[in-house]
Amino acid sequence: MTTWRNLFNRLANDLTANKRVAVVVIGLVLLAGWLRLSNLSSLPPAPYWEEVALGYDAYSILKTGRDHHGHSWPLVAFESFGDWKPSGYFYALVPFIAVLDLSVQAVRLPAAVAGWLSVIGVGVLAWQLADLFFERRWRMGLTAAAVLAAATSPWGVQFSRGGWEVTLATLFIILGVISWLKFTGRQLAEQSDQALEGVSTRWLLASIAFLGLAMYTYQAARLIVPLMVPGLVLIWWWRSHGSLYPPRPLQLGQAFLARHRRQLLLAVVTGLVMTAPIIIDLNSPTVSQRFTETSVLHLLEPIETSNSIQQAAGHSLLSRLFAHRYLVFGRVIAGQFLSHFRPDFLFLSGDVNPRHSVQLFGQLLYSDVVWLTVGAVVILRRRSWAGWLLGWWLVAGIVPASLTRTVPHALRILPSWPVWMLMIAIGMTEVLRLAHQLIASLPALPRLAMPKRAALGVLAAAVVLANLVQIGWWWRVYSGVYPKQHGREWQVGYRQMVIAIEQLRADHQQLPLYVTREQGRPAMYYWFYTRTDPSLVQTAQETARLDQGEFLTFNQFSFVRSMDEVPVGPAIVAASPQQWAGLEQRLVSQPVTAQPVSIIVDTADQPVWTVGLLSAEVP
Amino acid sequence: MPSTIQDLPTVATDWLAKRGRGQRGQARLVWLASGLIILLAVVLRTWRFGSVPTSLYWDEMAILVDAKSVAQSGLDMHGNHWLQTIFPSYGDFKLPVQIWLTALVVKLVGPVHWAVRLPSLVAGLATVVLAGVLTEQLLKLSRFQSRALAQSGRFLGVARLFAMLAVAISPWSITFSRTGFEGHLGQFWLALSVWAMLKSSQRWWWGAVAGVLGALATYSYFSVRFVWPGVLLVVMAVLIWRQLSDATAGLSLSALGRKGTTLILVPTAVFLALLVPMLRSPWYQPSNQFRLSTPSVLNANYAVSSNQLRELAGNTFVDRLIFHRHWLLLRSLLENVADHLDASYLFLTGDDNLRHGTGQHGLHLAVMLPFLLAGLYYLGRYYRPALVILMSWWAWSLLPASVPLDTPHALRSLNALVPTSLIIAAGLAASLEYLRHRRGRCFLGWSQLTLVAVTAAIALSVWQFSWFYFGPYPVLSGKWWQGGYNRLAVAAVERRRQVDHVVVIEFDDRFHLWLMAQDAFTARDFHSWESQNFKFRRFDNIIIDEIKVVDDYLDKSNSLVVIGLSQQVEKMLRDDFRIEHQEIIDDIPGQQPLQVVTLIKR
Hints:
The complex is a heterodimer. Chain A has 25 helices and ten strands. By secondary structure, chain A is of the alpha+beta class. Chain A has a six-stranded mixed beta sheet with strand order 6-7-3-8-10-9, sandwiched between helices. A two-stranded antiparallel sheet of chain A has the order 1-2. In chain A, β6 and β7 form a beta hairpin. Chain B has a six-stranded mixed beta sheet, with helices on both faces. Chain B has helices at residues 8-19, 22-46, 58-73, 96-109, 118-139, 152-168, 171-177, 182-199, 205-218, 224-245, 253-279, 284-292, 302-313, 317-322, 325-340, 343-349, 369-382, 384-402, 417-438, 446-470, 472-476, 485-495, 512-516, 523-528, 549-556, 566-572; strands spanning 501-505, 538-539, 542-545, 559-565, 577-585, 594-601. By secondary structure, chain B is mainly α. The termini of chain B are far apart. At the A-B interface, α14, α15, α16, α17 and α18 of A face α13, α14, α15, α16 and α17 of B.
């Protein structure tokens, strides 16, 4: 903790030395908090099924020490719907649920707080790396630019407002990199001052801890972190020797290993101990299931393409070489990687999944196209280890998503979000720096114009204003249009449906209940909204019918694919209006009638649930 | 001799350097390299020319028929004079230049199918040479010379060679050099016009030449009329800026103003004057209507979606601003532009349409991606005027291609071939210079190894593309090239004299073009036939109609040839007719089987 306190003390000193920048930074941090925390339970309009599953299993852990399937304190992953979610976010939820009870707000708060802290984390990263891109006097400017970019990032806000495990994992990765940079920086200082020896080891352990936690929080992090590690080691080497390829590298390498053997051993052992449970389960569904379900390597299409090309070429030797399925898969993966740099994805419409984007904005702001371009040029020109770090982090953050089927994927590449923000910040700072140079070189400005030094402030204010206008525009879409256009993506209506069912159950306690699975995972929603005692669910596990990890029956509940599965007889029923109409048709010549009791509408005022009774007709 | 494999690149470059020592030696090397690149371009474009792609598709066939008619009679297939600015064709209103050039070829060699592709072949080879010439002109706009690229003369020479190479081996260029698409001709005239624009800073009359070439480009491909003016403005702005910043010119402001006005006005006036005949063509409005009927951002109803969004948001003043229909239209257009900038489309997959690409290769080879980025960086750092022109050229090329909704489109954006190739060339040249600069100072000779690796990667990519294009591609793309249509047409024309009628059950409303392209029919025949909506459905004893007329013709004929989709032809067979001859064409992957059957009454 001392080490972190020292880090923040130094940052605070810099801030107090630049009071105007400090005010802006604090204001932006507060804005970031408001964007991420306000109306959290109603925006997005309802929790989607993963959020509900996270919340209920965390509730189950809090109450019973087991998940709803009865597994005791799972370490690597929770079974959930059979998709084996990493355990980190569940445990992060437990204290929030303990304080706020099981609720949408409680489920979303860890991600919101993590997203907010990530804004500060990006600022700290920018402050750490500033000297490698700009002169010392631009350090606070870059920090402010980074906070501005992160605070007003639609991508960042979208994934801070929901129970997104990836947001927490991204924060851990940011903290891991910050710690690593402190460690490697401390190493340099220790080389000249023996009194500092040992301080860096704490940073090393902190870094390993954070990166390890990321691997327990999000599936893709289990690939991202191992991919980042060689890059981080490379940075250590570079910072120690002042160059990526110094003269006499073999001798230097031996000396490096000898000098740092204790720390290297500690790092390896700590890393292995932390990740041992994951490594042990590598071939079990707890780790590999998700990859199997989403991997592009299990697609048939590339194999069919390879076969058709080879057939068209008469199965010649060259065709077996040039059209080998591995090459076809390689091309597919390369295309998937490149898709994350599509301009429409980044700047215009974002991820096609409406939960990941409002569809009228890209993942970044419109003006970011300029900052990003300039930032990339600056990074290339400086040719420092910081550029390598950012490039490596970017690639490592995108490669795992490139191996999956749905691309481009804003959620899966969120761990690369800090890099995008830093590049944007570097671009903003460079433009202001060039503008400052230009202004300084001009002859005296006309009488009516402001003093030269104020001109830079005006320009900076214009940049801030441009971002604020765009995020304000985005917020208008997000809060006004998005919930109504895309409410169904968030399973709007479940809460009201559960309330309606409970009201009917109060009067008809003996009746069986049938709920369709059209909106997805109705059992979990029921437990979530009624705060069902987890021990009841754990007990029911033994006798319930399951579809992978999803309950199809629970006590007198049956969760059916369609109303065709509902037997003709008295019951409480919840289904979509279309299914309800089908049911009414089916019951035309039956001695049972379907009586709708509640029609639940979504945010666009369209019926989404019909809840009612099947009752025997009175002769 | 090299003592280790690591020494091999050094020894090779030293050998070449000895040969090229001195100005004369260097010039020899440059000519040798240019010759080899042109030879490569020739081989890639002429090998199995006419048979890969496997056959002509409808637009090429229409051009061939009109060219045949013009060559034989001076009139198009509908009897209009050849000197017209818009040819009605089969109702899609074609521009004249491709037809005129094809007519010249037909006049020399007859109405062979490859005649329609020859002008494109020549344009493709000329584009290779033009790319080299343009590179030098563009790079010389910059006065600033980097210390890192100290031997700028060598850099220019190398960039020129790489520009030729980039076009020579580009799948985009190769594919369109071997087909009769007007867009390919258009991009060549446009690039030539840019060359003339750049020369106009030395002699004003080059501006007039640029205007003529711009008009020629516009008379080749419709979209160029939107691209050329934009490119002209940017090129002239850069030239005027160059004049302004050139301290040695010593020109007064008024002289500069006059020069600037001349630079812009002369080509513009010539261009507009030459477009007047097109504007006055009776087919101009119908051609515009035809093109606008394609689903595009211009005919999508943004007012409806704008109103919906405003209502959802609350319909305040701010909402009316941020959800304005013009903003939604602009967004849609930008999304289409973004489709053309997708790196995967540019370097990995290309266009979905197998007439526009192989489907397995990008517009440029995948190995060129890092060089596009390197080119953007180096041009931005050291050759900004060139970058401004090339990027603007690229952007203007994408605009008309982004208006229709089906994007990305390799044909409509073909005007971007030259600027993207030149940027790649700059990247290649800069990378080579960087490696030469680092040679000898580097760790384990990685610069030499990199050079060898990159050269091998490029060579392997060219080999792989060539293998695919001449091997599997003709088989996999048969359906896209109306494979089998010509066989049907040949059978129909061969047998028409032996039967009472030839009935074609309409499976493609352009099939008549394949019939008209046969040697048996001449321009005189075309002019004696009647057309409906520019399509010929009844000529000689050939009838193209719906399936329901077949029975009528079976009733009134003793012998009949029936052509069409195999399943439809099978339905029309009757017991009172025996099959004398039957040919089923079912060997084209993805294409429905076609059939020609000769029926004789029992």
